[in-house]
Design a protein that fits this description.
The structure holds 2 protein chains of 2 kinds. In chain A, 16% of the residues lie in helices and 22% in strands. By secondary structure, chain A is α+β, with helices and mostly antiparallel strands. In chain A, strand 1 and strand 2 form a beta hairpin. Classes of the chains: A alpha+beta, B mainly alpha.
Chain lengths: 97, 346
């Protein structure tokens, strides 16, 4: 029986949809090692040509920010409106601005 | 003092959660969420995942018996999709802090359920078509609104599932249409299959709203978007013209268009039968779980061997060149990334 069987580790899967695009997180899966994770990722997440490249990363290796919108990590961006092009008033009729 | 502070903190978190749901925003894995919301999601997503996995059995039995290479290839692709759907959903459930091994154990112990429809037998090849057309059609009615469910990973899994279900429904319809343009015997096979599956398909939407006490809470949380009865009505309205196009009769003498309501009126399924199936007393309930348990036990040595191999590779000597160029590329590209990866769902 499988009472004391250990579960295969969890991997996060990232797929590049086509050349020119970033790899995007698509989900996770269990696999014994990196090579198996890559094969499983192909079977689970790209059965219809959804990707040209796959990354698999052990879930335990991911360090994430807290997604909370009140998180101070994102606070510095809040008051820096001058980082956006719309902050600047420019005269009308000046081309290519 | 501490208790008061904890209460205040909890109220604040609850208010923020409520605001996210109220403005139709998505809840993501590391957000605070009420325990009841998390439990409801785990139960629903797990049940959904189990249904996909158990759902491979009724049709899988026809893989070697499908009448042509084309039909075998299509059915194989469909059954493989069901496995994929199960895995997307287990993956979504795992973001809520449960493990897939635990969910599998709960299914095998009969402590978590799967869709009532898969407790019915598939004695006829026409059932492959009926399941694709009618059962997957009902599943699509249920699943399309779930793409906008309040829990992010569940919604994203459903988007992938829905894209693929469309192939399932169309291949089923085409299979039945082919049989309907065949011999009288083949047409009779299709009608017989539709007669058996119609009422169980209506039951897939769950009991009537009045007998579904948890529905209101799920809707308030944005997990469900429509009630059982609304979705059932939508399914009937969608299916009637498709049945006409096929040339089959839906086995309900009360089924007729109601111009005043702008919907079809229809009879009620046998709700006692649904209750029996949900209790695990359906015609094939015991067989489905026994088969799943056997497959799980038979696969144990494979899982153990792969673990042992991975451990030996990791602990042993470096093997030098990676076996595939793809793997090489992955390692290179990962090495170029910044060390911290914000935003991935761990």
């Amino acid at each position: 029986m499988s009472g004391q069987e250990r579960e295969w580790p969890l991997w996060e899967v990232f797929v590049r949809g086509k050349r020119g695009l970033n790899h995007v997180h698509v989900g996770s899966l269990h696999a014994a090692d990196d090579e198996m994770a890559l094969r499983h990722a192909r079977d689970v997440y790209t059965r219809r040509g959804e990707g040209v490249s796959i990354w698999v990363v052990p879930s335990a290796a991911v360090t994430a920010s807290s997604p909370d919108e009140k998180d101070p990590l994102f606070a510095p961006a809040g008051d820096k409106v001058y980082r956006h092009p719309t902050f600047y008033d420019v005269p009308e009729g000046v081309p290519h601005l | 003092m501490t208790t008061t502070q904890d209460d205040a903190l909890e109220q604040d978190l609850q208010a923020r959660f409520d605001a996210v749901v109220a403005r139709g925003d998505r809840v993501e894995p590391r957000d605070w969420m009420p325990e009841g919301y998390r439990r409801t999601l785990v139960r629903q997503i797990a049940q959904h995942a189990h249904s996909e996995i158990i759902g491979m059995q009724p049709e899988g039995a026809w893989l070697t018996r499908a009448p042509s290479l084309r039909r075998k290839a299509i059915l194989l692709a469909k059954v493989q999709d069901e496995a994929g759907h199960g895995l997307y959903l287990y993956s979504a459930a795992e973001t809520l802090g449960v493990s897939r091994a635990e969910l599998t154990r709960l299914l095998l112990d009969g402590r978590q359920k799967y869709s009532s429809i898969f407790s019915y037998p598939t004695p006829s090849y026409a059932d492959v078509g009926t399941i694709g057309w009618m059962v997957d059609g009902a599943a699509i009615c249920n699943q399309v609104p779930l793409c906008r469910t309040s829990y992010g990973p569940y919604g994203r899994a459903m988007v992938r599932v829905c894209k693929e279900e469309s192939f399932h429904q169309r291949q089923g319809f085409e299979l039945l249409l082919t049989m309907m343009s065949g011999t009288d015997e083949q047409r009779a096979m299709v009608q017989e299959s539709v007669d058996r599956f119609w009422w169980p398909a209506l039951m897939m939407f769950g009991p009537p709203d009045a007998d579904s006490p948890n529905s209101a809470r799920s809707m308030a949380w944005g997990i469900k978007r429509h009630s059982n009865d609304e979705l059932r009505q939508r399914f009937v309205d969608m299916t009637v013209p498709q049945a006409e196009a096929l040339g089959v009769t839906l086995p309900d003498p009360e089924l007729r268009w109601n111009a005043e309501r702008g919907h079809h009126d229809f009879g009620q399924p046998d709700w006692d039968e649904l209750a029996r199936v949900v209790r695990g007393e359906g015609p094939c309930s015991a067989e489905r779980i026994a088969h799943r348990r056997r497959a799980h036990d038979d696969g144990a040595w494979v899982r153990e061997a792969a673990t042992a191999y991975a451990e030996r590779q990791a602990g042993g000597f470096e093997t030098g060149l990676r076996p595939s160029t793809t793997t090489g590329t992955v390692v290179e590209e990962v090495a170029q990334r910044p060390s911290r990866n914000h935003g991935a769902e761990a």
